[in-house]
């Protein structure tokens, strides 16, 4: 969204966090870092997109024995922006692949953004 700042007499826009950081080891992530993250498997497929305390959340996924080889993340302090960013990335993924990432499930079954639209 393009906005105008009268004080600086300039237009500006916010950039969506896009997983700028990348690591192969959860130990490299600061314990207090909050933001959005996505996980990739050994074939470089995105298997999960999430938000929250990144280190804690990724550790919980590792305990589930997912095939995680790469963690990509962005620091996002604001909880509303964090939630909005996760939603946008999940919707974009679903639009491109017609499904959510492998492990983005709720209550044991996939909840599809496209299904939500068709049921509205």
Properties at a glance:
120 residues; alpha+beta; four-stranded antiparallel β-sheet; two-stranded antiparallel sheet; 3 helices; disordered C terminus
Write the layout of secondary structure elements.
Elements: E1 3-5, E2 10-12, E3 21-23, E4 34-40, E5 46-53, H1 54-63, E6 70-75, H2 79-97, H3 113-119
In words, what does this structure look like?
- This protein is α+β, with helices and mostly antiparallel strands and 120 residues long.
- It is built from three helices and six strands.
- A hairpin with a 4-residue loop joins strand 1 and strand 2.
- The longest helix has 19 residues.
- The radius of gyration is 16 Å and the shape is globular.
- The C terminus is likely disordered.
Helix content: 25-40%
SS class: alpha+beta
Overall 3D shape: globular
Average predicted local confidence, pLDDT = 89
What is the makeup of the main sheet? 4 strands, antiparallel
Q: Radius of gyration from the CA trace? A: 16 Å
Main sheet: strand order: 3-6-4-5
Q: Please trace the helix and strand order, writing H or E for each element.
A: EEEEEHEHH
Strand content: 25-35%
Distance between the termini: 26 Å
Low-confidence stretches: 113-120
Q: How many β-strands, per DSSP?
A: 6
Question: Summed up, what is this model?
Answer:
With 120 residues, this protein is of the alpha+beta class.
């Amino acid at each position: 969204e393009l906005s105008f700042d009268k004080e600086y007499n300039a237009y500006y826009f916010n950039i969506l966090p896009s997983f700028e950081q990348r690591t192969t080891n959860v130990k490299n992530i600061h314990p207090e870092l909050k933001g959005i993250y996505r996980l990739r498997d050994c074939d470089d497929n995105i298997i999960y997109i999430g938000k929250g305390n990144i280190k804690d959340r990724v550790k919980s996924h590792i305990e589930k024995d997912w095939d995680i080889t790469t963690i990509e993340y962005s620091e996002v302090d604001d909880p509303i922006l964090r939630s909005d960013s996760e939603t946008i990335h999940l919707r974009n993924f679903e639009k491109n692949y017609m499904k959510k990432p492998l492990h983005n499930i709720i209550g044991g079954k996939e909840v599809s953004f496209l299904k939500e639209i068709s049921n509205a």
